[in-house]
Amino acid sequence: MIGLRYTRARKKGSAGNRFISFISLTSMLGIALGVAALIVVLSVMNGFQKELRARILGVAAHVQVSGAGDRLGQWQRIAEQARAHPQVQAAAPYVNGQAMLSFSSLVRGTLVRGILPALEEEVADIGTHMVAGRLDALKAGEFGIVLGAELARALAAMVGDRITLIAPQGLVTPAGVLPRLKQFRLVGIFEVGMFEFDSGLALVHLEDAQRVYQMGEDVSGVRLKLADLFASRQVVRDLVTRMGADVFVSDWTRSHANFFRAVQIEKNVMFIILTLIVAVAAFNIVSTLVMMVTDKQADIAILRTLGATPASIMKIFIIQGALIGFIGTLIGVAGGVALALNVDVAVPFLERLLQVKFLSKDVYYISELPSDLQRGDVLAIAAMSLALSLAATIYPSWRASQVLPAQALRYE
Questions:
Q1: Are 266 and 245 within one domain?
Q2: CA distances from 216 to 146, 206, 319, 340 (A)
């Protein structure tokens, strides 16, 4: 009761009491602001991580099985062994090769991937990102090609144009080694929103790629789609044991580790930086309680003479500081969750209000702020805020418990 009463000043209280209550209010609002900012920022970072993962894995595979020297024979057997794993939902063969693409007077280097369109759509989402043509327009023997949007734009090529593919495997002739040239017809253009793929990936039919790169019946490997992409490391260990040492198995966490590591590091750094906001607000509680102890020395002395123990005095001020932290945390969690769930509404409103575009489509491939609110983050932030608030009450409360009644009441 005493702790709750000290948290607020009565209307007829002294100016000192009202000032202390004002400091308590600012501490409370500071904690609320810091907690809300942490929740929103971490939700946006989670959203970026989720969006980045979705865009990368829309083209890349969850797990990839390849052979020595980038050649794998009897891929059907490998695919069957992989499908036997309970986590594997689909498997598709591929052929990888480097090439130069030439159209008119423009030349660009690219990664050429040979695929079977029907199986590829089971392991990747490229078919849903087609902006022109269709992925199933790739047919064996017709030498069709599908390009990323940036690559097609760099070559100034449109659907229906004839593009020359220059393969590094040369033809030995009496005049020397000549590069292998083959004309392909552009049958589609995709845009997944990742510059790496949109500017450097070309898709052809598997059989056409085997002919161009002289692979025979071999492929470069088999791509797998998992039911749970976060189980990829365990699946890799299981497949290595099952398939033996003559194949190389890797998962998406290895092939694109830099992207996800960068986002995770940014998220951790932002958490540390924004935690300082909460820490500053929480340690304002220290100054609030120290001033309160100084102002209430006579009250403390009277309580001690009435039989209150030092532990009871400590509890009064711990309750007061903890209450400030609890209310601030509660307001911050409510505000942060509400804002994180409505980022898609709040950001466009601010853009219209300020006449600014935060993520321009001309610069960023993710042009909208995504948000992914996770319960674990909210609980961790709330616990951290409450712990800091509680820690801030220890010194002032101990100082209050050490007040000597005789000295405090000497001039009363």
A1: no
A2: 22, 11, 78, 54
